[in-house]
């Protein structure tokens, strides 16, 4: 039985806490908490560390009989300067909502925090809790090596990782363990419910809502969410069946310990924060495993209002480069082309990670794009041109913002990419910027096609080469952007960019960078 919640404490049943700091002391505490944690630590500190959550799981999840026997689990929670209340609530939610026969231990890894409450007071607190241990890193290692330290001490058959500001819901672990028991190369992760940073409301995301699996932006290498398409959903026998996921967010997942080690654990050359989740995702898939989102399993996570790792952006970029160099084959050139800063970074020694990839006989990245992550646009490996597009008449550059309401125009060339970075793709699209999501095309004004030029979200084009519905441009004589749909050419006029009848004039000639006409 879980201990009773503190009588009268706010936030029970995962409800929001309605508290506004009133006195100057409260305001000060609120502001300090926000500054230190990027969430409302002051409000969190008022909520019981044993708070209850409404069990809103689908009835099929509640009734389901799980495969037996299920393996025992080491839960690993890493933290760096975590708030007292959120850390303890994470630990108690594990202890109170995990069947004891499945829980081998809870390992807290302190990544060399400075806060006083995380020193002796934490040791003292934990000494009263069964199966909970604190392991301390003598120096700040970053979350990747902190997890590896936790794994070194783990004795369970399965590892379950959690961020240090989570709340596990009833029945969170069994559905994950079942997937591993059935196939040890399956790496399952739960639905991640949002715990709001401001009022700590637990927002349950039910199976009837849109299911979101993990993806990655192939240019910025950021994790992103993808709504699961209806055809995928329909393929399942039951709405509670797992769904394959191309990547995972990284904070909450379970994995067979031997399989994790066999797969090469984490890249211990990665620092502080970021990139490890994409790296392990590519590695799992390319080396024969499977990542699954398991709809019955729920864990809440406090999404911070801002990231506290601004100072570590260079570390993240370096982690990404290590990942790209080992796993992305030629596709890493897409990242580097659009983010030249990557070329200047020394990613360190990657020999052992490359040996690992060989030893595990992993598939190449194009296999992953065709078979696992096939419903996204993959930028060309070798576009026809990329960089600025300069007019030969006035020497100014084609420039557009990410707001399609603002028409593209010609301004002085600044040479910094961004709003002046374009890619002319092999499919004849002219895509804007690092994101490549907006395309140059003709406008329809009051339902009538016009000759004005705008940018608009590009028609979708997937990795497996379906023809695009996007308006096309054809480069002629290396300088003219011919528009077959209107039989006109891109021209710079006094009143802006248009397509006009093709003429042999400099207003219709353009200097494209990095031409590759092969
Ligand atoms: O130097 C550090 N040492 C640490 O121990 C920096 C961080 N940490 C700890 C920190 O205390 C926390 O427990 O690492 C954990 C993750 O850091 P957060 O919570 O500040 O960042 P985040 O929630 O944005 O992290 C997400 O992305 C990371 C990329 O490296 C990790 O994969 C995190 O585990 C991941 N979190 C989740 O996936 C939770 C689900 C939310 C989503 C999406
Ligand atoms: Mn987190």
UniProtKB/TrEMBL annotation:
<dbReference type="InterPro" id="IPR029044">
    <property type="entry name" value="Nucleotide-diphossugar_trans"/>
</dbReference>
<dbReference type="Pfam" id="PF00652">
    <property type="entry name" value="Ricin_B_lectin"/>
</dbReference>
<dbReference type="InterPro" id="IPR035992">
    <property type="entry name" value="Ricin_B-like_lectins"/>
</dbReference>
<feature type="region of interest" description="Disordered">
    <location>
        <begin position="1"/>
        <end position="23"/>
    </location>
</feature>
<dbReference type="InterPro" id="IPR000772">
    <property type="entry name" value="Ricin_B_lectin"/>
</dbReference>
<feature type="domain" description="Ricin B lectin">
    <location>
        <begin position="385"/>
        <end position="513"/>
    </location>
</feature>
<dbReference type="GO" id="GO:0000139">
    <property type="term" value="C:Golgi membrane"/>
</dbReference>
<dbReference type="GO" id="GO:0030246">
    <property type="term" value="F:carbohydrate binding"/>
</dbReference>
<keyword id="KW-0808">Transferase</keyword>
<keyword id="KW-1133">Transmembrane helix</keyword>
<dbReference type="InterPro" id="IPR001173">
    <property type="entry name" value="Glyco_trans_2-like"/>
</dbReference>
<dbReference type="GO" id="GO:0004653">
    <property type="term" value="F:polypeptide N-acetylgalactosaminyltransferase activity"/>
</dbReference>
<dbReference type="GO" id="GO:0006493">
    <property type="term" value="P:protein O-linked glycosylation"/>
</dbReference>
<dbReference type="InterPro" id="IPR045885">
    <property type="entry name" value="GalNAc-T"/>
</dbReference>
<keyword id="KW-0328">Glycosyltransferase</keyword>
<keyword id="KW-0333">Golgi apparatus</keyword>
<comment type="similarity">
    <text>Belongs to the glycosyltransferase 2 family. GalNAc-T subfamily.</text>
</comment>
<keyword id="KW-0464">Manganese</keyword>
<keyword id="KW-0472">Membrane</keyword>
<keyword id="KW-0812">Transmembrane</keyword>
<protein>
    <recommendedName>
        <fullName>Polypeptide N-acetylgalactosaminyltransferase</fullName>
        <ecNumber>2.4.1.-</ecNumber>
    </recommendedName>
</protein>
<keyword id="KW-1015">Disulfide bond</keyword>
<keyword id="KW-0735">Signal-anchor</keyword>
<keyword id="KW-0430">Lectin</keyword>
<dbReference type="Pfam" id="PF00535">
    <property type="entry name" value="Glycos_transf_2"/>
</dbReference>
<comment type="pathway">
    <text>Protein modification; protein glycosylation.</text>
</comment>
């Amino acid at each position: 039985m879980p201990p009773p919640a503190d009588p009268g404490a706010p936030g029970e049943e995962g409800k929001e806490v309605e508290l506004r700091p009133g006195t100057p002391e409260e305001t000060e505490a609120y502001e300090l908490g926000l500054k230190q944690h990027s969430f409302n630590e002051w409000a969190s500190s008022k909520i019981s560390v044993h708070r209850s959550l409404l069990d809103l799981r689908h009835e099929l999840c509640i009734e389901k009989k799980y495969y037996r026997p299920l393996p025992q689990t080491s839960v690993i929670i890493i933290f760096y300067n975590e708030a007292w209340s959120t850390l303890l609530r994470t630990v108690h939610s594990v202890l109170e909502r995990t069947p004891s026969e499945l829980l081998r231990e809870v390992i807290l890894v302190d990544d060399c925090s400075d806060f006083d409450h995380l020193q002796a007071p934490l040791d003292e607190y934990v000494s009263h809790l069964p199966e909970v241990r604190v392991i301390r890193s003598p120096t700040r290692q970053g979350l990747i090596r902190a997890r590896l330290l936790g794994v070194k001490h783990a004795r369970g058959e399965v590892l379950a990782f959690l961020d240090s500001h989570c709340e596990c819901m009833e029945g969170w672990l069994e559905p994950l363990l079942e997937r591993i028991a059935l196939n040890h190369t399956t790496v399952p992760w739960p639905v991640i419910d949002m715990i709001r940073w401001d009022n700590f409301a637990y927002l349950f995301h039910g199976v009837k809502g849109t299911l979101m699996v993990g993806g990655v932006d192939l240019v910025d290498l950021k994790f992103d969410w993808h709504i699961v398409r209806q055809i995928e959903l329909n393929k399942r026998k039951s709405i509670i069946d797992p769904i394959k996921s191309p990547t995972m967010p990284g904070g909450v997942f379970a994995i067979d310990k031997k399989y994790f080690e066999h797969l090469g654990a984490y890249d211990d050359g990665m620092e502080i924060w970021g990139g490890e989740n994409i790296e392990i995702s590519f590695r799992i898939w390319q080396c024969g495993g499977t990542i699954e989102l398991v709809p019955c399993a729920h864990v809440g996570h406090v999404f911070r209002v801002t990231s506290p790792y601004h100072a570590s952006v260079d570390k993240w970029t370096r982690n990404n480069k290590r990942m790209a160099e080992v796993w992305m084959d030629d596709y890493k050139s897409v990242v580097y082309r659009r983010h030249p800063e990557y070329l200047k970074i020394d990613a360190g020694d990657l020999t052992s990670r490359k040996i690992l990839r060989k030893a595990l006989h992993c598939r190449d990245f194009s296999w992953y794009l065709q078979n696992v992550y096939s419903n996204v646009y993959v930028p060309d490996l070798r576009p026809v041109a990329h960089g600025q597009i300069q007019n030969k008449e006035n020497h100014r550059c084609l420039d557009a913002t990410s707001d399609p309401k603002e028409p593209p125009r010609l301004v002085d060339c600044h040479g910094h990419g961004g709003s002046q970075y374009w890619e002319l793709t092999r499919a004849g699209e002219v895509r804007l910027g690092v994101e490549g999501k907006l395309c140059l095309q003709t406008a329809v004004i009051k339902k009538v096609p016009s000759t004005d030029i705008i940018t608009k979200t590009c028609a979708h084009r997937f990795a497996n080469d379906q023809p695009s519905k996007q308006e096309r441009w054809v480069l002629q004589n290396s300088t003219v952007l011919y528009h077959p749909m209107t039989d006109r050419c891109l021209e710079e006029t006094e009143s802006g960019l248009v397509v006009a009848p093709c003429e042999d004039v400099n207003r219709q000639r353009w200097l494209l960078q990095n031409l590759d006409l092969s």
